[in-house]
Amino acid sequence: MTTDLTALRQELLDLLCQLAYKEGDFVLSSGQRSSYYINGKLVTLHPQGALAIGRLLLSLLPPDTQAVAGLTLGADPIVSAVSVVSAIENRPIPALIIRKETKGHGTRAYIEGPVLPDGALVVVLEDVVTTGQSAMKAVERLREAGYKVEEVISLVDRKQGGAELYAAKGLKFRTLFSIEELQARYQQMNS
């Protein structure tokens, strides 16, 4: 199983380098300029990417996790992949999607998905963390709904303040890949 996860991790890293990582001049959602951009959806919506993500992130979840959640749209395919893989692995964990704004009709809910008991442990998932603000919005909405959130897990950490923000808010933060690891593999593959 460990060797399998190690191989899956390498496969996912390669997919991120081939499909998601680009160099150039970009403006990020945080408003910051960057010499590179990672479009995680090109991998999270890819069949092999989604399967690898689902298996790898499921293996990182605390045993008492009752749901995975994330802010729409970047986290939608990630939480869905983890939820589907969890069912296949006979460890069913539902997915929750956090809206940026309340729904304009019906229940006007911020959170889509099954209603969980108060105090349920929810892990927030994210594709790419820069400043950490997107995942923090999800954490705040979940806590307002009465859920317990102690951890954020991302695919890639750009190392631009997200980890420090989470630490300051008392959250554990883990990531599959650092930006340095992604860039080193990208250079290897393109030299």
UniProtKB/TrEMBL annotation:
Record keywords: Glycosyltransferase, Magnesium, Pyrimidine biosynthesis, Transferase
Enzyme class, broadest EC rank: transferase
UniProt: orotate binding residues: T130, R158
Entry EC no(s): 2.4.2.10
Keyword Magnesium: yes
Domain of life: Bacteria
UniProt-recorded Gene Ontology molecular function terms: magnesium ion binding; orotate phosphoribosyltransferase activity
Gene3D superfamilies in alphabetical order: 3.40.50.2020
Pathway info: Pyrimidine metabolism; UMP biosynthesis via de novo pathway; UMP from orotate: step 1/2
Any Gene Ontology biological process: pyrimidine nucleobase biosynthetic process
Record's keyword annotation contains Magnesium: yes
Residues annotated for 5-phospho-alpha-D-ribose 1-diphosphate binding in this entry: R99, K100, K103, H105, E126, D127, V128, V129, T130, T131, G132, Q133, S134
Cofactor: Mg(2+)
Catalyzed reactions per annotation: orotidine 5'-phosphate + diphosphate = orotate + 5-phospho-alpha-D-ribose 1-diphosphate
Membership in a protein family: Belongs to the purine/pyrimidine phosphoribosyltransferase family. PyrE subfamily.
PANTHER family for this protein: OROTATE PHOSPHORIBOSYLTRANSFERASE, URIDINE 5'-MONOPHOSPHATE SYNTHASE
Function field: Catalyzes the transfer of a ribosyl phosphate group from 5-phosphoribose 1-diphosphate to orotate, leading to the formation of orotidine monophosphate (OMP).
Subunit annotation: Homodimer.
Listed name of the protein: Orotate phosphoribosyltransferase
Species this chain originates from: Chroococcidiopsis cubana SAG 39.79
Gene name of the record: pyrE
